[in-house]
Design brief:
Length: about 150
């Protein structure tokens, strides 16, 4: 498979974001997620598709790149609600929902490589059958409610 075929979803994403007036600072979105290519159906391509779906939502900011924690994060009013970390979708959800999903085997509590699990952060297992977009909408709704407190 050619490199162009593998990166098509992310290249299309940059074009779509530009059409919607969402700036990606002139760099292809795929460079903002990660430099590693895991194929057209891998987590980076799935995340790029997710970002494209959420880019038009009010208050949502697409990843701006850079380095360090949160470089691939989707934000609502400046607060992270979803990101791709080490090939896993990480979402901020109510603690009870995270515990429910962990108990069901859908993922683990996210720990940001610090060894302390975060009760409101789910690191979704890449093999999980859970659909990403509904979970991301759930995280976005949670972020919206949290911002209104």
């Amino acid at each position: 498979m050619s490199r162009m075929a593998r990166t098509a979803p992310r290249t299309v994403l940059a074009t779509e974001l530009a059409k919607r007036g969402r700036s990606v600072s002139g760099r292809p979105y795929r460079d903002r997620v990660d430099d590693k290519d895991d194929g057209p159906d891998g987590p980076r391509a799935r995340y790029a598709d997710l970002v494209m779906e959420l880019a038009g939502e009010a208050g949502v900011t697409v990843p701006q790149g850079g380095s360090g924690f949160g470089r691939s994060a989707l934000r609502f009013d400046g607060k992270i609600f979803a990101m791709l970390v080490r090939g896993r979708l990480v979402l901020k959800l109510p603690a009870s929902r995270v515990s429910e999903m962990v108990a069901a085997g859908a993922g683990d509590h996210f720990d940001a490589n610090k060894g302390t699990p975060m009760k409101e952060w789910l690191s979704l297992d890449p093999q999980s059958a859970e659909p990403w977009l509904p979970l991301a909408h759930e995280a976005l709704a949670f972020a919206d409610r949290a911002g209104r407190r």
